[in-house]
Amino acid sequence: MRNWFRSGIAVSAIAVAVALSAHAQAQQQVLVIQGGTLIDGNGGAPVPNSVIVIQGNRISAAGRAGAVQVPAGATVINATGKWITPGLIDSMSFGTWMFGEAYLHFGITSAVPNVGRGDEGLAERDAINHGMYEGPRIFTPVATFGGRVLKTPDEARARAKALLAMGADVIGAQDGDAPPEVFAAYADEAHKAGKAAVFRCVGPQTRAKSCVLAGADVMLHTGLAGDEMNRDEEKWKSYVGLPPDVYCGMDPAKEKDMVAFLASHNAAVVPNLIAADHGFPSSWKRIQQEDRELLSDPTLLSYYPAYAVADLVDNNKNPEEELTPTQISIRTCGYKNHAKFIGDLIAAGGHALPSMDDSQSAPGLGVLQEMSVFQEDAHVPPMKIIQSATKWPAQHFHLKDLGTIEPGKLADIDIVTADPTADIMNMRKLDMVIKDGHVVDRAFHPWYRGAMFANDKVSYDGAPVSNLPFANALKQLVPKPVTMPKPYMTVIAPNGQEDGIFPGVAYVRKGPGLGPVPDYVISPTPGIDGIAPRTVLQGTGQTTVTLTGVNFVKRSVAYVNGEPVPTTVDSATKLHFALPPEKFITAGKLHIVVKNPQPVENYEWGDTSNTAHILVPYSFSTELARPAAVARE
Fold first, then answer.
1. Rounded to 5, what percent of the chain is helix, strand, coil?
2. In the predicted model, what is the mean pLDDT of the chain?
């Protein structure tokens, strides 16, 4: 007992010493921004000759020089002749890996995806938050739902609770094809958990007003409010398209009513004026040129994927390339009214939030371009535009630690060299970006690690099983008899042993199903349609992985990242294998295929299945270690 007691004292002393050392280091990490004009995000007059004190990753003081004491020993950034704003927030993104550096390059320090991307999105969020690679703060909804799937309030409540259990930062719903009571139940669960309800209420059952009354904090694509403002609502009652055509028939009285309604109900809209209304902003030629210049950067292109470039090129087309003169006339009219509505809403005290809606606008830059469109086409004053990308999204997405430069807030800050309250274009004249209390390296790097959790670098695919149509097509192949050729043939099995094949023997390929494991001499092509588990936390011990699919045979072998593993085939539709702990030492993705022995029956299909994937998040992604109330996305 005495030895244990002494040992306990020693351990406690070490723990105290470590804690004091960590505290002392935190106390020394003081950064001061001095001399610049402070635009704190609250909308008041800018403060010249300001002092901002950052302790660790939070702001401890901010105000006019002389009113704020500069701590001794602080690292001082001289911002004389410059302007200081909160870090910008993208209010609608996909959060996809390739945008991380570009966001920070343009001063966007936070992003709220409208597509949750399941465990992969959570793993990326946590990796960025722990400094494993650079990127904006990600506030993920984990997953979204469609009204065609969830039809009752009880289903919506269950789904919302499950997503919250999985670690959702906001709760999102994908469309308006559900009755308002479904959205109301969803929003209620979000609000009880202190989270925002982000809805894409584009109808036909739930639209802008009923969406807001159901509890929406943010409505994407303006909640398609144009439907309810059109002179002929009956004509547009089933319209769910995103282009601005419906706004062409905007009734002034209905617009005034909608503006008053939204302004009084504290709901923000995300209009996507570049992405959804592409081709029609007055600055379109400039936007096209800016995009070309950005996507000619060789360092960015060293990892930025071709499919994302192609998306932007497609979205950057001129209207004349894809629309008739009549369509152009209607859409031009619709765009002008859509932009007018956004300007009128903000003038009345309502809120609209700029977004990139990647990859339909340039990475990172798209947020600044949308802010410019707010100024040029919606005629919003620059100070309000700054708030639309800082304080307002933080307010509506319930991001309590962000959005303004005030004591207690996280230190996400942009410093620019010209006055953005005179011209919002000056937000592009970035001198420095600070995120989480640290100066950001704004360069692009060919070694950028953002793709570490991606399935590949050639597509947006993030599914646990890629190319499911391949496996489904294999199930449709018609079985046929096969007569082996003469003379005697030898094939080499995966274990290296020879299997004799006798001449003149007919073999019939059977369809999938339970029962004895097939031992075909001529193999069908294998396919995978399911994998469990899909997510295995870094540092996990030996784990058994089960694959389901089609055309598994006695000598099927699973390959993990190109290496064969001992495989047990349970049936034509199921096999399993054990992965040792060393497979989970490194965070990232494991890629799995099944190979069947040669020769294969349909040589044009090959001997290899489509690919399944296991996500291996970092060990600090503790939410991913907990089972959720529903199967993970």
1. 35, 20, 45
2. 87
